[in-house]
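Q: How do we represent a protein-ligand complex in a form that can be generated token by token?
A: Start from the inputs.
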Amino acid sequence: MAKPFASSTDLTEKTETLEVVADGVYALTAEGDPNVGVIEGEDFIVAIEARATPAAARDWLVKLREHTDKPVRYLILTHYHAVRVLGASAFDAQDIIMSNATAALVEERGEQDWASEFGRMPRLFKQHEEIPGLTRPSITFSNSYAIDLGGDRGRVDLQFCGRGHTEGDIVVWHEKTGTLFAGDLVEAQAALYTGDAFHFDWATGTLDKVKAYNAEHLIGGRGVDRRTAMRHRAAHKNGGTLKDAFEATHTALGPKFGHWPIFEHCLPFNVQRLWDEFDGIERPRIWTMERDREVWAQLQG
Ligand SMILES: [Zn+2]
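Then emit the structure tokens for the protein with zinc ion bound:
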């Protein structure tokens, strides 16, 4: 029997946990669902990631409000993926910050990504009809941007570390508490999604830079498995098919990572993207709902 598409039948609510990571630093984790965070300034807060819808964002803000009632001055979005950005309107942030590359991706493929992600994981799109449209930034930067938190709270440094999970990911560093929000560049006990990735940049220079922060608190926690790329390359060089590469990868990684959230969901898209890179396709092709289903049928069907 064919596997149901991506996470379309994953309808079980996850347990959400607000963690006080350090003094004035909060993270909401949810068993493999996208994490969000906040860093508290003297008179305002800096929010990191927005969740998929305003309703999902409000659930997070209700929990946060047990700890601080300061207004949201800045909302930082680490990359363009719909499940991280479309809840932005709930924050009433004075400014929304993205990298230049992410802002360009929103314009180029934000609409398609919204449709694709909604189809892949509808559970995250609570009350999706409230989404007012694509989320656009009021502040963008190419490499780094700093926010002074006021008082003795230090500052927040936003940094582009190179292409990785997408073309425009940034990390958010709070030196004072040694906390790094790494977005989807790093995952902990959840499968990596690499369908829009630059595998070779990510696995080398980009992750080296992330590691160099030597963070005491890393929101995330697993790197790219370089061995996966080797297996793909072998299948590609030996004139194998995409399906061969998929099966070899599944066989190799399944026993160790198969029980992690969204492993089956991610793998076909990840294998397809790495295959494209071996074919010399520099920038990720846009995932549309049609292409999502085509690749799924070919590999998981
Ligand atoms: Zn992502």
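The two ends are 8 Å apart (CA to CA). Residues 100-120 form the longest helix (21 residues).
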